[in-house]
Amino acid sequence: MMRRKLPSLSALRTFEALARTLSFTKAAAELGVTQAAVSRQIKNLETELAVELVSRKSGKNSLTDAGDLLFGGVYRAFDTMEAVIDRVTDSGGREILNVSVAPYFSSQWLTPRLMTFVRQHPEIDLRLHHSYHPADHRRENIDIGINWGSGVWPGVEKIKVLDGALVPVASPAFPASLNGALTPRNLIEQPLFYEFDLQHWRLWLETQGVTAPAVLSAQRLSDSHALRRAAIDGHGIALFFASLIEEDVLAGRLVRLFEDAVHVGYDYYLNYSRDAELPRKAKAFRRFILAESGVS
Length: 296
Fold this sequence. Notes:
Layout: H1 9-21, H2 24-31, H3 35-49, E1 54-57, E2 60-63, H4 65-88, E3 95-101, H5 103-120, E4 124-130, E5 144-149, E6 156-162, E7 166-170, H6 173-176, H7 184-187, E8 192-194, H8 198-207, E9 219-220, H9 224-232, E10 237-241, H10 246-250, E11 255-256, E12 267-273, H11 280-293
Parallel strand pairs: 3-4, 3-5, 8-9, 8-10
Antiparallel strand pairs: 1-2, 5-12, 6-12, 7-10, 7-11
Helix pairs in contact: 1-2, 1-3, 1-4, 2-3
């Protein structure tokens, strides 16, 4: 049977990146080319296929019906090719398990436990992809994830594995350097740091009966490792994950300034697609995580 001539692999890869991200900027960065090159490839592909694939309106991109149809096929094709190539190159014949995991959770909670899983399942090649947000299991080559969030994710099965409440922490030297005792009311006079939302500090203060001023001074550090480091180095008070500071507290690097933590509606969830059967490798990882976290 003579096969129909297909568009170039480069054009299809460009379309796949754009359709997955819905951003010419992100697609260009991922592919290592300019936005103009991405735009040109997409325009040429639309001309070759004689159909509009991407709707560009007011800076917001969306796929047309034809684009969505093409994306489904192209994504599955690239997913299959990548999986096969992985299998025949560096996997050594082992099953590849792609896991999306929140970065700080990965370093503090998961990594110290990983060798147990590796010893239990030497046939599985575990690959971690760091992200706070859960993967789009329909579009991304992720088997299972552990991410921090609300858990309100359409099409996703989720199991809470760790509490995501936040608590004020600092280096032991920081409260000792102050004139007088530190209280929730005078805490707002100190250098404050947070990672996600200034409102989280307001919520914690409310739990202590303190109304934050209209202008609350606090510095955002949008990385858990940087936030932790700022607290350890004595720069101020960080609102940090209560469930992930035990090691630092025991080692004397951090102190929990107040016992009360604030839950902002986000926790760490094991998550995976509701629309597809988990493969054996992902089921093995799920059993391991639930056992380690003590979740039945």
